[in-house]
Amino acid sequence: MKHRMRIAKHSHSAVEASYLHLELTIRRLLISCLKIRLLSQFVLGVCSRMTDITDMKHISQVQVNERRPSAVGGDASRFVILAASVFLCFSAAIWAQTPVSPPSDANQSWTVTRESHTEDVLPTRTVESHVQEGNRSVDKQSVERLGLGGHFEPYQDTETESVQVNSTTVRTITRIFVRDGAGARALWQTTEEERRTLPSGESRTERVVSALDYDGKLQPARREISQTKKIAGDVEETKTTVMLPSITGGLAPAVQIEERQQRTGNNIEFKKTVQGLDAGSGKWQVSEVQQRSTKEEGNSRTTEERVSRRDYEGKLSDYARTVSKESESPSGEKQSTVDNYSVDMLGASRDGSLYLVQRVTSSETTGPSGQQTAMQKVEEPNPGDPSAGLRVTSLISDKVSSGPSGAQATRTVQVRNGGGEFEVMSVDTAKSDNIHAIHVQIGPPKPQ
Question: At how many degrees (to 10) do helices 36-50 and 12-30 cross?
Fold first, then answer.
C-alpha cells in the first residue's frame, strides 16, 4: 500500500462503500498482530478525510509506535520495505490464533505469548488465552508495549465472550479496552452479536457496535443485519444491511451487501456486490463487485479473484486481480504462489490497466518430529524502474515445533535495504501450552 493515496471523491455512496470495505478489513486484522495497527491507523486517517457523515469514533483507533525520525529520513525506500513486511503479517504464512484440531474435551483452555521485535519500532508482547467451559467460551488478548522504564506496559485488551444459549442461538460480546492518560483501563468499544438458526435452515445475524461519544458514553455507532439462506441445492445467498450514523441523527441504512456462493463439485463460484445509498438521489448504487472462482483438482487448487470499483467517472472498472495456485506433493510438501495485480503501481501513473505488483511464493514442510517449516519470498517492482520487472524485496522464514509442554514458533523477516542486500527487519516469537494453538498456513484460507 502506498504511504500517499489519492482517492477520488465522486459520490457519497462510493465513499461509504469504500469506507465499509476498509473497516471490515481493519477489524479482521486488529486481532491478528500489532504490526497491522500501523497500516490500519493510516487507513483510518484516510477514511476520516473521505467522509464527514460517519462518526469515526466507532472504530477502534489504536495509537501506533512512532518510528525514530532518523530511520524515516535516512532511507526513503525503507517505508516500501516496511509496508511489504506489514503485508506479510496477514498474507501466505499465518500463525493461527485458533486450534487447527481442537482436543475432543469440551472443557479446554490454552494460552499463547508472542513477542515482536522490529527494527526502529518499540517491541511488543501479546498474550492470548482461550477458556471453554460447557456452552461458554472466553477469549482474551492483551497487547503490551515496551515503556520508558524498559518494562512491558499494558496497552490494549480485547475480551470476547460467546455463549451457546440453546441449539439455535449463539450470543457473543466483544469488549475493547484501552489505557487512559493515567494508565487505567478504560472501555473503548463493544460489539454485541446474536446469531440465530431458523427452522427453515436460514440464519440471521445481528451485530451492534457501540463506541464512546464525545461525552464519554457508549452509544450505538453501527448496526449490521445479515440473513443467509439457500436459494437452491448448492447456492447460498447472504444479504447484509449496514446502518451508520446519519446527518439527522440515529442510525440509518447506508450500505447493502449481497453475497452469493455456488458449489459445483469441487468448484466454487463466489460473487459479492456492495451498494451505497447516494445522498443526492436517495437511490442505491453499486460501488464494488468482487468475483472469485475456485477450482480444485486432486491436491491442487487455483483461485482467481477480480475486484471492480467505481472510478472517478462513476463507472465500474477493473481495480484489482489476484491469482493463487496451491499444491501438495505426495510427501506432504505444500507450495503456493499468489500473484497480485492492481491499477496502482508504485512509481507509475494510473492508466486503467492492471499490472503485476506483487508475487508471493511460499513453501511448507513438516519434519518427521512434527516440526513445521515455512519459507516465503516476496517479489515486487522497483519503484525507480517499475518496467524492469519483479525483484525480491522480502524473505520470511517460519519454524514451529511442538513437544509435551506445548508449541514454540519463530518468524524471521528479512528485507532488501538501499544497497540491495538483505537484512533482518524483525524477529517474532510465540509460545503456547497447547500444540494446536500455533501452526503455519500458506496461501489464502480454504473456502467453506
Answer: 160
Query: CB–CB of 430/95 below 8 Å?
Result: yes
Q: Is residue 1 part of a domain?
A: no
Task: Please classify residue 353 by burial: count the beta carbons closer than 10 Å to its beta carbon, then call 0-12 exposed, 13-18 middle and 19+ buried.
Answer: exposed
For 277, counting Cβ atoms within 10 Å of its Cβ (0-12 exposed, 13-18 middle, 19+ buried), the class is: buried
Structural domain includes residue 3: no
Quote the Cα angle for 334-440-115, to 5°.
150
Rounded to whole angstroms, what are the CA distances from 279 to 49, 106, 110, 242?
Answer: 17, 50, 49, 15
User: In which region does residue 201 sit, left (phi positive, over 0), alpha (psi from -120 to 50) or beta (all else)?
Assistant: left
Phi, psi of 88 (to 5 degrees): -65, -20
Give tens-digit pLDDT for 49-107. Answer: 333 333 333 323 322 233 333 333 333 333 333 343 333 333 333 344 333 334 444 45
Does residue 154 sit in helix, strand or coil?
Answer: strand
| C-alpha cell, 279 | 445522498
> What CA–CA distance (Å, rounded) separates 334 from 238?
32
Residue 122 resides in a domain = yes
CATH code, domain carrying 238: 2.40.160
| Residue 81 C-alpha from the chain's centroid | 19
Length of the chain in residues, anyone?
Answer: 448
Range of the domain at 310: 12-441
User: What's the rounded Cα separation, in Å, for the pair 45 and 61?
Assistant: 10
Radius of gyration over every alpha carbon of the chain, rounded to an integer in angstroms: 22
Count of domains observed in the chain: 1
pTM assigned to the model: 0.74
> b/e map of 37-62 (b: 16 or more CB within 10 Å)?
bbbbebbbeebeebbebbbbbbbbbb
Residue with cell 460501488: 287
Which residue has 451492534 as its cell numbers? 208
- Say how many Å lie between the first and final Cα of the chain, rounded: 28
Q: With respect to residue 6, please indicate whether it lies within any of the assigned structural domains.
A: no
Q: Which residue has the cell 492518560?
A: 181
